[in-house]
Model the fold of this input.
Amino acid sequence: MNSNANPVWSLVWTFGLMSLFAVGGANSAIPEMHRVAVDVQHWMTDKQFADVFAISQLSPGPNVLIVTLIGYSVAGVAGALAATLAMCGPTAILAYYVSRLLARSSQSRWPAVIQAALVPLSIGLMAASGLILARSSDQSWIAALVTVAAAILAFATRLNPFWMLLGGGILGFAGVV
Amino acid sequence: MLPDSPPAAVPAPDIPASNPPREPGLAELFVAFAKMSLAGFGGVLYWARRGIVDQHRWMTAEEFNETYALCHFLPGPNVVNLSVVFGSRFRGIAGGVAAFAGLVGPPLTIATILAALYMRFGEIDALRRILAGVACAAVGLLLATVLKMMMPLIRKRDAVGLIILAAVFVAIGMARLPLQTVLLVGIPVSLAVTLTMRRRANP
Done:
């Protein structure tokens, strides 16, 4: 792609395409976002990517909003809007037509088969997201310990995830992490 | 409306059936999805179920599960797909747009403001430390979600599923191959294996 072109188009192209490949949701696409934003396009550093992920988890709304933050850092408000619409648009249109189609030809068994086939892929993608983010976030023993503790709490209890994020923030502010 | 239900005058479970849910209007769709979205943090699904099934009774739990399964099997952000499918079921394309705008609009505004603040103040030391701590915890939450999703595969001793999972993890997380390449190989393989296993299970 022409790197002199308006970066907004490069955002639209990147996330529009990614939208159709994000099997299992926005968190599955994080490795691809990281690869494009940090390694290929050099839109941000590894550290900034980890920050942006943290901010997206801190703000309300669907997980997909991490692309809003990436878009903003590339091209301001226009970039934020373009990246978000590009990431949501193609798949939303696809969802609209597929749901119409399935409503007409009732009870197809294909969705169930395809879904069963996609489950291991999407879990593998999310596990890769975890690894990539852990590599940039967990730079110390204590940082890794915070991650493990948050994972155990979220896995074993029904505690609101907000408290884990708050705890992490407080430990970070205190300079422990 | 009666503040207290009279004891055993009318069996409670019959009330929703004899009183079918009203179809939501465009403004109602926008507001309902905006509320779910702003409440839902770390994932909107829980709040979407609560709003659509429990509060408004726009769908039964089964209808919601079916709709969500469809949206999960399609690529892209699941809850975004859900908003479009749900809204358009009641009000056509305009309904889909209204629900989508409600879901994405308000948090998009918040995220943009946070992004601007980060660009302006991101280098301040205290903020850097706080974000680093939040990031560690956020990664932990993601790992917990991965574990929770893996549990059914482990319980079923689905060795093939776990091997495919591990292969994708290595290809994307460690070899850092592009997503499209991995999926163009992974989806046909996984689909073929799933179909073969199902045929063998019930021929």
Q: What stands out?
A: Residues 7-107 of chain A form one domain. The helical segments of chain A are 7-21, 30-40, 46-58, 66-104, 110-137, 141-156, 161-173.
